[in-house]
Specification:
Layout (H helix, E strand, L loop, with lengths): L4 H12 L15 E9 L9 E10 L2 E11 L8 H7 L12 H12 L4 E3 L2 H16 L7 E3 H12 L9 H7 L10 H17 L8
Parallel strand pairs: 1-4, 4-5
Antiparallel strand pairs: 1-2, 2-3
Helix pairs in contact: 5-7
């Protein structure tokens, strides 16, 4: 039986609110967001294994690139030529990578209970949850913020009618944000953070369609 995510998270919050990771399950009352991205071997959550994880904090109008998470993991057996073409990470690039268990703990410590921002953020959250639950007994309880939804909602309020192109490169171009090291976890996390800040605090782009 498939348990709805909301029910599963309620159950996990109840079970772990007094454990070593109890802080994660407290409501967040600050003003920060964490932009996070994972590079994986597949876009299928069931098959995907994590190769690298990048994250930066956003506080108001500032993307705090000096405080970042940039993790490479040990190469999984499923690393193939097809996935290497996308993320450019070969087995030899990951020889100094860390174990998955250590990487997951670093993610939890860096993110805390802040909201998690991303482009197709639910994919990253689901992949992380897939590995977190067997090890720690819970998935990420954080609020997820989808960049393409933020962009879509703002554009629809300003410009009624027409379809909105939600591709990563298109959004970056419309917002006049440089794409930093595309298909690297840290590069994508920083680019998404910059786009989010522009959407929240900058001018709405005029040439949408």
């Amino acid at each position: 039986m498939i348990i709805p995510r909301s029910i599963r998270r309620y159950k996990e919050r109840k079970e772990h609110r007094e454990g070593p990771w109890a802080e994660l399950f407290e409501p967040y009352k600050g003003d920060e967001v964490v932009s996070l991205d994972c590079e994986t071997t597949s876009l299928d959550v069931k098959k995907a294994e994590i190769l690298s994880i990048g994250a930066v904090r956003i506080k108001g109008r500032k993307v705090i690139t000096s405080d970042r998470l940039d993790i490479k993991l040990k190469p999984p057996a499923s690393l193939s030529g097809d996935s290497i073409k996308i993320h450019k990470l070969r087995a030899q690039d990951l020889v100094d990578g860390i174990e998955l268990e250590d990487a997951l703990k670093q993610v939890l410590e860096f993110v805390g209970n802040r909201p998690i921002l991303g482009y197709y953020v639910n994919f990253d959250v689901r992949v992380l949850d897939k590995f977190l639950r067997p090890q720690l007994g819970f998935g990420l309880p954080n609020k997820a913020v989808e960049l393409s939804h933020v962009y879509h909602d703002i554009i629809k309020w300003k410009h009624v009618g027409g379809d909105v192109d939600l591709r990563f490169d298109t959004i970056a171009g419309k917002l006049d944000i440089p794409i930093l090291e595309r298909h690297t976890a840290l590069g994508d996390a920083i680019t998404v953070a910059l786009m989010y800040v522009r959407l929240k605090y900058g001018e709405t782009p005029k040439n949408i369609y």
